[in-house]
Design brief:
Layout: H1 8-30, H2 52-59, H3 65-68, H4 70-77, E1 84-88, H5 94-103, E2 108-113, H6 116-128, E3 134-138, E4 151-157, H7 166-176, E5 177-188, H8 197-202, H9 207-216, E6 219-225, E7 231-238
């Protein structure tokens, strides 16, 4: 059957429009084809609805190096009154509360964690000891959920290996930092034959690999400290665009 000449362009347009709408629907359903893939699927499954009291017993105990050296860590951060700091992966919040005391009276600490239970508990415990400058932020696996140019220092301890989408998360950290802002990372030394079986099985990347990933995200390494036995301390500065 032949269509009248005047109807052919109309039908062609209709077909093309429906095809375009179909492709758009598929793209919306599938998401960006170039989206970053998880480097460690399921790494944060245990923090979906954590028991805060139970985890306080794990995180805030003698023998855990971050807890034992918490005073040394705070000194190494060189915080000043008025600083705005983000404790990313703040967990039960003991570091965030210590930071809050250092940046008073006009400074602020964002306690950032993927678990709302942790965030709520951290803010409540801070308020209980008179610290009103701790602000809770529930982040997601791809972003720290902080405003652009809002912080002077980003800090994370025993959490970088929990970054399921490190490229996306690092981009969000860099955006949140002000010009010349800094990023401190403490994580486990991972060396086959030296590190514990737990570290080798749980921690994804070595210090060298972590450094490469962070530098590739727009940072420069400005300091390394070796005051801990099982963990490293790296300080980066945001590079200018």
């Amino acid at each position: 059957m032949r269509y009248p000449t005047a109807e052919v362009p109309f039908l062609d347009c209709l077909v093309m429009r429906n095809l375009a709408l179909g492709l758009l629907f598929v793209c919306l359903c599938l998401g960006p084809v170039s989206a970053e893939q998880s480097v460690n699927p399921g790494i944060n499954q245990g923090y979906v609805n954590p028991n805060v009291t139970q985890w306080r017993g794990v995180f805030e105990r003698d023998g855990r190096e971050i807890w034992d050296r918490r005073e040394d860590i705070i000194l190494a951060l060189r915080l000043e009154p008025g600083d705005v700091v983000a404790d990313i992966g703040s967990g039960t919040g003991f570091i965030a509360r210590m930071m809050a005391k250092e940046v008073m009276p006009s400074g602020r600490v964002y306690a950032v964690d993927i678990a709302k239970n942790f965030v709520d508990s951290t803010v409540q415990r801070a308020r209980a000891v008179g610290l009103s400058n701790v602000v809770g932020v529930v982040n997601n696996p791809r972003s720290v959920n902080l405003p652009d140019n809002s912080i002077d220092l980003a800090f994370t301890s025993d959490t970088y290996h929990h970054f399921e989408y490190p490229k996306s998360t690092l981009r969000s950290i860099r955006r949140a930092l002000r010009p010349n802002g800094e990023f401190v990372v403490i994580d486990f030394i991972r060396i086959p034959g030296i590190s514990s079986p737990w570290v080798l099985g749980h921690v994804r990347a070595s210090e060298e690999q972590v450094t490469k990933e962070i530098e590739a995200a727009g940072f420069e390494l400005i300091e390394r400290r070796g005051f801990m036995q099982t963990q490293y301390y790296l300080r980066f500065r945001k590079r200018r665009d």
